[in-house]
């Protein structure tokens, strides 16, 4: 139950229905949208939501449902019901195409049995009577015209008409040719007058040809004559055409009689088409507002995660602006949320978002909120929004509010959701505040759920001290003096009356006078709220900054771990190679010493021979002498100046890489697939020949990959999963190669592919942000993706 009835208009539910109607293909679907109501049956709500969710899945991820034609079969079936009535060719064609759509849809779901159970339930136990379609196909062709062979008599009449028309044509052409050779005709050819083929004659020659004059030109110099011989033939054609019409009526009447027993089945098919059109429209609207199916519970509670007002979302989309999401919870512990904060800070929008999304969910519509959101089932939704003063009923603004409060207090219960905007306003705050507090206390005792907005301090204090009530505030940037539209639950908010007045430009003397007029306690409370707001904003900004720094530290740690692992591997390889080389040197030295000793013995210690052998030994040992490594000075000549593409070696590790970029005193070096940054004095330029072939070859392969990589991809015409696969491969390569941005061309259309791609990319931490191309160069048909 909705009270008052105009709440559906004030919350925007009527406008939502109009937007859904725009997606309907048929008048029947639109009529069904008009009948959408807020339900309180848990099973029905789940069924309607599931149907919309399944159809949305078909539109986004499956082959297109073969829905091409929707006609009002119900009206045609009612016409068939009447004895002696018959459908026209056009009406049979509408029935034919509608039935073809019905059977194609049933076949579509038969091929996907069990995948869309809630949609399959729409035609469960519905018989498929294709004989109806066959009967119509025998009479009506694919263009909606009666077939020439629909009956033997029709074939004979059609053949006779063609023969008579051909004979009349030949006859008049022969007469026209003769008249032309005699110079009787005017300029031009045979023409049609009053549905008859005529010869254009000069007026002075009209007595030279017997026939019937059908018309004359505006100047009177030309007359249009149907020759006497042709007149009889044309009359014959006309008689045959009348006879053909009578035969067609006879055929259509017989076909209508054959379909009369199937009227109940035709009405069932009509119901299926109407429901499909209805569910399709709901699914298309859900795609427009990025709607999801929430979790539904048969209790009086709500938990909205990243919720957005659908109408505001659509408006912001047109202006290419983003909407601040809402997170709020109403349950047994927090039954009523009391929202306070500055004017134009979003309190009313916040409350209307909760009310509208609850209405939509209970009406079986997907809502623009995270799929992990929870909506309950309320038996009653009461709303007090706006000014309902009435001259006819002699009600002032405050009287109208009090009338609603009276109804709320009397009728509300634990299954009621209340929404009250600017609670207690319209009268003297000294009395309006206590009355509002008493009403709020009474509603809380009844375990009512809901949300109210207010500026009254007594309601904020009451909510802080009362179980079941919870304060919440709309955040406000009191430095830049602008609302943040973020709902923070747990503390009340200041109205920022003086700050906003100061920003608008109210004179300082007036402001000071106003401050002196308010009570000291009130001033203290408001100042405390402003200070709390400021501190909360500073904490929020600091937390955001720390989170950003923490992410940067984590990235650096990850990069250092990779580099450390790479260097450790190189170190192990170098040690292994050094050991192998040392072992080889020792073996060679041992052989050399043994040979020298053997030579000395064989020469019987001859002095000259011994001296030569010792010199040879010393020369061989000097070849393997270990020299200390001395780093070259950082200052180099102009010929040795580093530039991108040069090969360098890290002085303290002998690791070789290629220069990618030079930034002041830092050098960015590519070492295989890794990138590292080193100070200029820590690298030493080496020639290409000094670089091992395997390192040059691996870098050449990596460079070719970079050169062949394109940061642009066109996925127009692809299916959703194919497009996502191609984008994922490109994204992997882009992250590996440290590419800064990507360009994805997906086209505009209904925006389905664009939304699918953007939702998918939001899951990647490497994606920093996304934006549309300039309107002159493709607009929202192209998405730019910026990587961290």
From TrEMBL:
InterPro entries: DNA_mismatch_repair_MutS_C (IPR000432), DNA_mismatch_repair_MutS_core (IPR007696), DNA_mismatch_repair_MutS_sf (IPR036187), MSSS (IPR046893), MutS (IPR045076), MutS2 (IPR005747), P-loop_NTPase (IPR027417), Smr_dom (IPR002625). One of its GO terms (molecular function) is ribosomal large subunit binding. Residues 529-627 form a coiled coil. Residues 713-788 form the Smr domain. GO terms for biological process: mismatch repair; negative regulation of DNA recombination; rescue of stalled ribosome. Its EC number is 3.1.-.-, 3.6.4.-. Pfam families: MSSS, MutS_V, Smr. Keywords: ATP-binding, Coiled coil, DNA-binding, Endonuclease, Hydrolase, Nuclease, Nucleotide-binding, RNA-binding, rRNA-binding. It comes from the Bacteria. ATP binds at residues 341-348. PROSITE patterns: SMR. PANTHER family: OS10G0509000 PROTEIN, OS10G0509000 PROTEIN-RELATED. Acts as a ribosome collision sensor, splitting the ribosome into its 2 subunits. Detects stalled/collided 70S ribosomes which it binds and splits by an ATP-hydrolysis driven conformational change. Acts upstream of the ribosome quality control system (RQC), a ribosome-associated complex that mediates the extraction of incompletely synthesized nascent chains from stalled ribosomes and their subsequent degradation. Probably generates substrates for RQC. Endonuclease that is involved in the suppression of homologous recombination and thus may have a key role in the control of bacterial genetic diversity. Homodimer. Binds to stalled ribosomes, contacting rRNA. Belongs to the DNA mismatch repair MutS family. MutS2 subfamily. This is Endonuclease MutS2.
